[in-house]
Structure formats: C-alpha cells, structure tokens
Amino acid sequence: MLGEPDFADDMLALFAARAAPRLDIPVIQPADPFLDMAGEDLRRRIFLTESETGQSLCLRPEFTIPVCMRHIAVNSGTPKRYAYLGQVFRQRRDGGNEFFQSGIEDLGNADIAAADARAVSDAADTLSMVLPGASLTIVLGDQTVFEAVVAALGLPGGWQTRLIRAFGDRDMLDTLMRSLSEPTGRVAGLDDQLAELARNGDADALTDHLETHMRTTGYLSQTSRTPVEIANRLIAKTQLADAHLDDRALAVLKDFLALEARLSDAPTALRDFAAKAGLDLDVALAGFDARVSALRESDRDVAAMHYRAAFGRPLDYYTGLVFEIASDGAVLAGGGRYDQLLTLLGATSAIPAVGFSLWLDRIDQARERGAAI
Amino acid sequence: MSITIALPSKGRMKEDALAIFARAGLEITSVGHDRSYRGRIDGEDSVDIAFLSASEIARELGHGGVDLGITGEDLVREDLADADQKVTFCARLGFGKADVVVAVPQVWIDVDSMADLGDVASEFRSRHGRRLRIATKYWRLTQRFFSAQHGIQVYRIVESLGATEGAPASGQADIIVDITSTGSTLKANHLKILSDGIILRSQACLVRSDVSDRPADDLGTLNGVIDRLTRAL
Predict the structure, then answer these.
(1) In this complex, do A162 and B118 lie within 8 Å of one another by their Cβ atoms?
(2) Measured between alpha carbons, how far is A244 from A176 in angstroms, rounded to an integer?
(3) How far is A152 from chain B (nearest CA, A)?
(4) pLDDT tens per residue across span A151-183
(5) Taking CA atoms, which of A71, A296, B156, B232 is between 20 and 30 Å from B132?
(6) Cβ A213–B107 below 8 Å, yes or no?
(7) What is the pLDDT of residues B36-77, one digit of tens each?
C-alpha cells in the first residue's frame, strides 16, 4: 500500500472530533532518540543515513517519539492530545518496508484511569468505524501489577529490576526465574582481599581501593561508572550470592503469569490471587479497578475484553497499561502507557503519557477480506 | 569457464594461506610482477587467484564475486547477514586464531558475567543520563550477542575502527567488543573478558560461496580444489 488508504480522512475526522488534531511530523528524523529509547537492535531495522555534518538521520520508524519530542519542545506544561497519520519506515521480514500508521498520543493527562480507558475506546471505535461488523478481540495487560507482585514478594532490589526488565518476554522471564532459583554461591572473579571487604560490606575501603586502581591505571573516574557505584553493587551482589528464589516465590510468580480472565472478572481474580498468595497488592489493584470502572463508564463491554497477566512489553519506558486489538488473528492496534518516555527524552518534569497506533495496511487487508465475503 | 579463489593480500594470513595451498600441491604464482593482486595455480588454467583484504574476501563470498576464499570466521559472520545461508565453512585452518570478546574495565570488580552487565546496562541511563556505550567494529556480532542471546537491549554502539581497547580509559565508551588472540593487549589496557563473554572463537577458514549456481565443470574444479586442500590439512 503506497498511497494513503481511502479511509484516512475518516480516521483523521474521528481523531479530530475526539480532541486530537493532526500533527505533521517530518519524515527525516534524528536517529539518536530512537536508538537511545529502543536500543541498538532497532539499528538493523531502520533506514539510516548521515547528514553532511555527520549527524545520524533516519526515516521515521514510528511516530510516538517525535510526537513526544515536539510536545516537550512546544507544550510541555499543558496536557495535550495529538493525532498522526502517515508512512513509517522499518525493515520487516514479512510485509513491506514502508507502511502507514495512525494513532493518538495523550500527553500530560493526570487522570490515569480515564486516559487509559479513553485510549482503548478511541482505538476500538476507530477500528469499528473502518471495519464495520468485524469482531475485535481486545487484550489488556498491566505492568504495574507485575511490579507490585514482585515488590510484595519482598525480593531483593536487583532481582526485582531483572524480573521487571524481562516482563513481556516469556522466554527471557522463564530463563531468568530458573537461574534465580539456583544460588550463585561465591562471587566469581574476585581476589580474597576484595571478597572479604565485600562480605563485610566495607564500602569505604572498596571505594578507596577502586579509586587508587583508577588513578594508577589512568582511568577517568567521572566519565563512566564511579568507584562508589561499583563498590555498592559488589556488596549488594555478595549479599545475594547465597540467596535464591524460593519455591514459594517461584510458584506465586508462575501462578500470576498464568492468570487470564475476562476483564470484567479480572479485579476479583487478582484479589483472589493476592489473598491466596498472601500479598498486599492493594495500591496496584486500586489502579487496575479504576481503569476497569472507567472503561465501564465509557460504555465499553468489559466482559468482552480479555486480561492476560503476562502481557507486557520489555522496554523500560512502558509503565502501566498495555493493550492490543486484533481481528482474525491479525493485530490491528497496539497501545499502552509510557510514563517514563518523556522524562527519558528530556522533559524536566514527569509527564504521564498513553497512546496507541493502528496498522493501516493490515486494516486495509481486513477491509478487503470483509468486502470479499 | 573458471572459478576465482580469494586469498588474503598481505601479512601472516597470506603466508599461512599460501603454505596450505603449497602443502596441497597447488603452487600459486603471481601474474605479472611479485606485488600483483592476481595469481594462478600452476597447471590449473581454470582457476584465478585474487589477493584481497580479509574483509573484502568475506563480502565477495557473500555476493558470489568469488567462489572460494580464505578469511577469518569473525569477518564472515560480521559482514554477512545470515552467513550460513550464503556460505559454507569447508574447513578450519588452524591459523589466524582470535576470539571476539566482551571486555570491561578491570576496575568493574562487580561485573563478571553478561547477567551482571545486563543489570549495569539497565540502570545506566538513570545513573549517568545516557546509555551504556560499547566501542566496537563488530556491530552485527555485538547486536546478536547482546540482544538475541542475552536480552540486553539498552546500550549504544560507538563505532571504533582502531585502538578499540583504548576507548574505556579515554572515556569514549564504557566497554568494548573486540578481537583478541592472547589477551595481552586487553590486560595492558586494564580490561578483562567476562566469564561468559566470548562471542566467537574465530580462526582462518576455507569458505565456499553458495549464492550462485555454477556450471558442472566449474563445480568439478571447485570441489577438486576443496578436496585437495582439506586432505592436506
């Protein structure tokens, strides 16, 4: 699909009617923000070039990051909604390398539950408009609940971070849980003296040692990890060397990840899970319930939506809600909350953010299939 | 018809490659003068020898510009996407041995494994306001090892075309991915290899290009040369 799809204007009209005017985003973008946010793995998939002055440029691989950057530059103080529609450029194994996406980014709205519900509603209504009569499957997940489970289990900080980092990638998470179930024993790669200092938690002596080492070897101690940071992490790691994820914690995590329910039943299912596991998840579940209520209040059929506890995205700027809308097995919309993203992009204050994007080429194919029937 | 074999154009790699051909009874002579970049095998009129740089050999094998070549496995795997679909490694030749490794400053005494490095990388941005930086010329190998094998996504690669081992001390990067044979250069620069940080144990290989179909007589010539070389090892 090279031209704008014929339903583009209808979509933009719907977005505008929902207080999300279109923002035009240049096709050529600085590449660094994308690589910084999504990681180097993206490099293989984007179309990179270099300016005459050596700046890395790329064809926009998506809209969220440039929309957020524009918001920071122009409107960072005020909540605002933006819509976009246009081509994005990414190398894909299947499907073309240039395809259309549209979507809404809702930036700065402090009413988290309402903004979440609105994002799901906007995405679902847009799809219903362009695919009349199609049956849509809506699946939701919530990173906050997983984080609360991990925190309530009282796991060490380092393990919590690792588990949260792997959340959304089931293989990685399973590998990690297996490796955490085995104690590492002693900390490898240390001489006796340093091991002793680490066991005694002597951060000052370790820091002194590291500072001396850096001075004598000509390492700059300000440009990268500092002696204090290294000493503290070594002590934390030493304290964990004999610990392992016990059977109970492992069972609780597995139970949680296996949880699936109709969204209408999910609040009760999660409360039952928390009671059975003996975990205090009240704060996270209050947020979850508020979102379900907000969806009900905007007349969504929450009994027709699915909650999957293991559903998440393993990128560090996603924070709460994630959702997908599919039809006939094809994912047509994906969205979620990314409260960390604007801070990572340089916003000076925290800006809550939620949004979604639609795959217009897949929608177009679904429309053709629908027309053929 | 004829086939083209690419050999390293200089240094130890060239000498060692020529020695293997000699042992197989395939004497290579330069065409024209001594420093020529073309050669032939005595008595084998249907074989052209091209002397190329080791990374050019990898690239030429990848798009079928040459039929057979001797070059480092690291270069083939770095320069070609899906190397195993484009070339066959017919033999490991026992020279040009070097490992592609992940090395961090020795002073990072808390970092011994890729799992440690994953922790450090994930917290790097919040502690230092930027992603962890890796100096390397091995973009592809680094990405595959970090992202696909160890699930580490958040880092940035700083391109380094020489003296990579100096990048951490000078502050251009935090860690490196580089090639090492004895590890002495790393040690001299106060770097250590992570316990599970060997990405690839590389050496010079006899590599066949598989991207284009060959006429039967060329195929016969090619298989004959490969056969003689592997039996001489």
Answers:
(1) yes
(2) 12
(3) 21
(4) 999 888 788 888 988 898 888 899 889 888 887
(5) A71
(6) yes
(7) 788 888 888 899 999 999 989 999 999 999 999 999 999 999
CA count, 13 A, side-chain hemisphere, B212? 13
pLDDT beyond 60 at B2? yes
Residues of A in contact with B127 (CB under 8 A): 225, 229
Question: Do B151 and A225 count as a contact with CB atoms less than 8 A apart?
Answer: no
SS3 A39: coil
Separation between Cα atoms, residue B58 and residue B137, nearest integer Å: 15
Cβ neighbours of residue A39 under 8 Å, at least 6 residues apart? A315, B147, B153, B154, B155
Of the candidates A40, A162, A188, the beta carbon closest to that of B119 is on A162
* Best residue in A161, A162, A165 for a mutation probing chain B (most B CBs within 10 Å): A165
Does the B98-202 domain belong in CATH 3.10.20.880?
no
Contact A344 B122 (CB under 8 A): no
> Does A224 map to a domain?
yes
Query: How many C-beta atoms lie closer than 10 Å to residue A53's C-beta?
Result: 5
Q: Residue B201: left if φ>0, alpha if ψ -120 to 50, beta else—which one?
A: beta
CATH of the domain at A52: 3.30.930.10
- pLDDT at position A240 is 81
| Residue A161, domain member (yes or no) | yes
ipTM, two decimals, is: 0.85
CATH class held by domain B3-96+204-231:
alpha beta
Contacts of B111 (CB under 8 A, 6+ apart): B104, B117, B120, B194
Cα dihedral: B184, B190, B196, B200 (round 10): -40
Q: Residue B126 is inside which H or E element, if any?
A: helix B114-128
pLDDT at A372: 63
A interface test, pick of B109, B143, B176 with most A CB neighbours within 10 Å: B109
**Range of the structural domain that residue A170 is part of:** 136-182+246-327
How many angstroms away from the CA of B107 is the closest CA of chain A?
Answer: 6
Q: What is the pLDDT of residue A221?
A: 66
Look at residue A320 and tell me if it is in a domain: yes
CA A222 to chain centre: 31
pLDDT of res. A176: 86
Q: Exposed, middle or buried, A302 (CB in 10 Å: 0-12/13-18/19+)? A: buried
Kind and range of the H or E run holding A262: strand A260-262
**How crowded is the C-beta side of A10, counted as CA atoms within 13 Å?**
11
The reply to whether B98-202 shares the fold of B3-96+204-231 is: yes
Q: Is A85 within 8 Å of A11 (Cβ atoms)?
A: yes
**Residue in chain A nearest B145 by alpha carbon:** A41
Q: With a cut of 60, say whether residue B115 has pLDDT above it.
A: yes
Compute the average pLDDT of residues A113-139. 96
Nearest by CB to B147, from A41, A166, A224: name it. Answer: A41
**What is the structure's pLDDT at B171?**
86
Nearest alpha carbon to residue A304 among A100, A178, A137, A144 = A137
Question: What's the structural domain count of chain A?
Answer: 3
| pLDDT higher than threshold 80 for residue A220 | no
